[in-house]
Every structure is written in structure tokens, then in C-alpha cells.
């Protein structure tokens, strides 16, 4: 178990809290490993009827740890990349997944919401997918799921410009169910999760597998991973990661497409 992922089980709900607040809940390889373990555990443990994910600190998550991206780009990444197991577990999960999002949800913080079944936002929630700012490509099957959900032009804008979408737009675009006052977000998410947990789990699981084709999602994830890995070691990505580490804006103007 990773100390930066907290898990608590009560009334049929396994609550997962991203808890690396000093780094804005940026997700590390080890955190992905724990998240994957928990989603896999929920699939096998009949006592877990609903998963609820939330974040500690002032934002939901800043997405993948950029320092770890940089290490991978330099060939110094971990031997086993747990993110892939996490993404597959999300694609295959038949346990209803509720998310409570406050502040920013960056990159995979937003794309994981496309795998959630009920999304509650605080009024300050901002969804952003700045893959192009890091010279990367979308992941988590979001290159398929986001255009499907919000239409091509909005998805392109989110991916290419990486600017935050506020809670009202996210709601209007079908990325969330409801906006709820910040001081009630956790309690309300728990109330909804516990309500879903009272419904017949077998029926809900069958419903989820009918509503989401896991094989299609995994095939899309695999093709995204191929391009993602290629992009990670590009000159563009090296510039983006150096800029992040040096706290400056990246300059892509002198790097050609090939
Ligand atoms: N990976 C690693 N560290 C991160 C991080 C990330 N994705 N996001 C934030 N951090 C770290 C910062 O480096 C900083 O560490 P330091 O205190 O040791 O310098 C700390 O978290 C606080 O971040 P800071 O940028 O000062 O907070 P902020 O409130 O000004 O901004 C964000 C918050 C999320 C807007 C900003 O941190 C950000 O843009 N992060 C990168 C997001 C990103 O590109 N993710 C990958 C998407 S594919």
C-alpha cells in the first residue's frame, strides 16, 4: 500500500483518496500501482459495491508526475509501468465508479473521469487535458471517449490548447452529473455512492459491461500507448519537461514536426 493513496471501506463503498497534497496529488508509478490494486480488488471482492475517488489538498490531481515523465524520456523510468495496469483496470471495471472533483483535474485526472459513472464537481473544479503543452498525446482511451462525449471540436480544443474547462461548462458538455457546494462535496459524493451501493450489484455490473465495451477501450489505449511512448522521447517532449523543471514556458518554435 502506498501512503499517498488512502483507502477506506464502509457501507459497501471503497473510498480512494489521492493524498499527495504537497505535489498537488501528481500521480507516481507507485500510486498507479496502488490504484490498480484497489480497482482490481473491488472487481473481486463482493463486499465492495461502489468505488469513490476524491483528492486531498486544494486540487483533485495535477495528473501524471512530470518528473517521472522526464525520467522515462531519458530512459531512466521504472521497470514496470503500473499506469497501464491502472488504465486497463479502469476499462474493465464493472463496479460503479463515483468521482468527487474539486480544483484542477489535470491530464489523467480528467481522462479518468471519462471512466467514471457519476461525477460530482465543486464549483471551483476545472478540467484540463494539456497533452499538447507537454508534447504528448491523449491517453486512457480519451482520444476516443472525449470526442464521443463532447464532440470533436471541443475535444480538439481541450487537447490542443489545454486550457481549463470550468464546472459549468463541464456540466453542460456532459462531463459531470452535478455541481455541489465545496463544503458538501465529500458528504454528497458519499451519499450518492452509498445510494448506488443499495442497488443490485449484479444488475449494475451487467449494465456497465453493456454500456462500455472494455475491448474497444483497451484497443484504443494500446494504440495511444504506442504514440505516447514515441512522443515521450521526442525533442519536443524533452523541451516541455525541461521547461516544467525550470519553471518557464516551453519554446517549441525551433523544433520541426519530424
Ligand atoms: N508532476 C510533478 N510535480 C508536480 C506536478 C506534476 N504533474 N504538478 C505540480 N507539481 C509540484 C510542483 O512542481 C510543485 O513542487 P515544488 O513545491 O517542489 O516546487 C508543487 O507540486 C506545487 O505545484 P505548483 O505548480 O507550485 O502549484 P500551483 O497551484 O501554482 O499550480 C498546477 C498547480 C496543477 C496548475 C501546476 O502545478 C501544473 O500545471 N502542474 C503540471 C500539470 C501537468 O502538466 N500534468 C501532466 C498532464 S499530462
Automatic annotation (TrEMBL):
Coiled coil (UniProt feature): 207-238
Cell membrane listed as a keyword: no
GO molecular function, one term: delta(3)-delta(2)-enoyl-CoA isomerase activity
Sorted UniProt keywords: Coiled coil, Isomerase, Peroxisome
InterPro entries xref list: ClpP/crotonase-like_dom_sf, ECH/Chromodomain_protein, Enoyl-CoA_hydra/iso, Enoyl-CoA_hydra_C
Localization, UniProt: Peroxisome
Main location: other
Sequence similarity: Belongs to the enoyl-CoA hydratase/isomerase family.
Listed name of the protein: Enoyl-CoA hydratase/carnithine racemase
Lineage: Bacteria, Pseudomonadati, Pseudomonadota, Betaproteobacteria, Burkholderiales
